[in-house]
Amino acid sequence: MQERIVIVGGGAGGLELATMLGRKLGRKKKAKIMLIDRNSTHLWKPLLHEVASGALDSRLAELDYRGQSAREGFQFLVGTLEAVNKNEKSIQLAAIKDEQGNEVLAPRSIQYDRLILSIGSVTADFGTPGVSEHCYFLDSLRQADEFHEHLLNEFLRVNQSIEDGENTKLSLAIVGGGATGVELAAELIHSVSLLSIYGLSFLDQKHFEVRLVEAGKRLLPALPERLSASVEKKLKSLGVEVILGNPVTEVKENTLVLSEGENINANLMVWAAGVRAPDFVSEWGLKVRKNNQIEVNEYLQSVSDESIYAIGDCAGCRIDDERWVPPRAQSAHQMAECLYQNIVREYRNKPAKAFKYKDRGSLVSLSRFSAVGNLMQSKSLSMSLEGTLARWAYASLYRMHQRALHGWWKMFLLLMVDKLNHVVKPRLKLH
Prior knowledge:
single chain, alpha/beta, FAD/NAD(P)-binding domain, 3 domains, six-stranded mixed sheet, four-stranded parallel sheet, 10 helices, 27 strands
């Protein structure tokens, strides 16, 4: 009887793992590989800030799960994970309803022999009052699209107000000086610089304010201080006001309350200050960290159940006694590769190998203006990048994700399609 391997979560790690296992085991009928996700399409999560700003039309970058499953030898089910029953080795999927609330599919129970959780992360609000009520998050494509829709409405409103002779500005505030906050700030500046091309000629950078608020003493703590200072300098030159060492204590309607100094008023506020695994993870009887990450051993198995694995942002995996694997796309990719190799080794009656995280460094894009990063060759050897070379390195991260899903040949074809779309499609999505 075929082993049933169920993967929940079609993010970078989950989809890459399902694709690799489908090719190796699913096509040969050695195992039944099943991928479950609440959405029907996949978008690489580091692209969400581009969707939010209008720099990327998500429809041009989405991958259809069903199409991928048909090509690569796994089965896809759309569904939202509701519960995990360790004793019965089953998961419960919630009912699926249409926009009118009519039930399309009843709740379902799915049996598994091996369960792999790759359910990603959500933004952490650290218990700050008012965040969920008044701030936008960029954890999913739906949230990025929602912010983009409201951003367009503000573009239209403020542009018309200025045309009518009013002295007004559009003000945005971003909380969190990590990669998401920094990249979004730069993309928003770039988006406004393009508005005049598409008829919104009154709203320019003089009437546009972006404030980036970070509780820590510097931006991008994952990067060396020199690069962090370079990013801060570049953002300020673009017109972004950077506020450091001043945490937000409360969020009110159109207002960020800071621990020190004046409050910040803004038309739109985005919270990108930290990550944690979803709250419901703690309800499944698995040992979790304070941030809800599932604690796993060196083979990425839950320390509570050897039949359950976790990879990506939802996995709490130790590097050593003091450090944990950071929640990054490269971590999910490395975990998916390790778990794939170990499952294949098991089918060949070979022992599993422990997961060892290799920090390849960090890269941050400042829209079309610049990029910075450091590439780690080893613990003692790293290379700092800025400008064009860093932009190429940053772009290659997405291409490597595409290569993992499609292979080299199709990845190059997709690269050519993207280049053609850049020529024939508008530079800014305004619908």
